[in-house]
């Protein structure tokens, strides 16, 4: 996803001289192509995330479209006051680009794990929250972000996620993407769990179980119409995310189901409300929290009852 992000941003920057990229001393081996091609539109502010957001806001108020790139906890929480006041409250055209969704930086420990970011960012008025699940979604979101009004948070993974969608799939901020249609239950994914959800759906489809798979690459604004369709169809709904079970995709869908007044069978699969004290690969930590492919298949089988 990181490579797709910078390639897409470079393509847009060639057409739009107002695009500017800032990093608080991160992104090595990723951002160099942009810095080399646009040295006057790239700034490394050093390990100073608050300054990065403040500078980005000033540039945005001067007419620039500014992207601030860093590891997720650093670009969302270390500088949260600046994000809240300078970016969200002032409704500036700043794009916070966080890399390392969920346990992507598993071996770096809890300081680098990104399990609260969606909840934090979607609670900010004016903030658009995008969580692409494959390179095509990244490309589409970057393209739309250039002209999109107001601040944005773009959550990226870092593990070489495969492309799930066909090349001609339309990616539009605020609209979900149907990967598979099915009439037995629906799996809703966001961010870096799209690939896992796809593999889980394939397991069921090989067994003759027809499940829907839907990617929600935008969590704010949210595609409530798609969820309303699922509620009306009375399909069991399962949400899948590598984020705290509180405040992410599962919470959004739960809120809509509750307010609909309908009795829909519903299950959230996410990280329990606790920090990881496990250190290791992303796959290792996922398994510790029940988020491996086989564990998810078993959870769904138990939930659906077959």
Automatic annotation (TrEMBL):
Question: Which cofactor does this sequence's record say it needs?
Answer: thiamine diphosphate
One Gene Ontology molecular-function label: 1-deoxy-D-xylulose-5-phosphate synthase activity
InterPro entries reported in the protein's UniProt record: PDH/Transketolase, THDP-binding, Transketo_C/PFOR_II, Transketolase-like_Pyr-bd, Transketolase_C
Q: What is this protein called?
A: 1-deoxy-D-xylulose-5-phosphate synthase
Q: Which SUPFAM superfamilies match?
A: Thiamin diphosphate-binding fold (THDP-binding), TK C-terminal domain-like
Q: Where is the signal peptide?
A: none
Pfam families, per database record: Transket_pyr (PF02779), Transketolase_C (PF02780)
Q: Which domain of life is it from?
A: Bacteria
Organism of this sequence: Anoxybacillus thermarum
Q: What's the family?
A: Belongs to the transketolase family.
UniProt keywords (A-Z) are: Thiamine pyrophosphate, Transferase
Domain (Transketolase-like pyrimidine-binding) ranges: 1-163
Q: What is its EC number?
A: 2.2.1.7
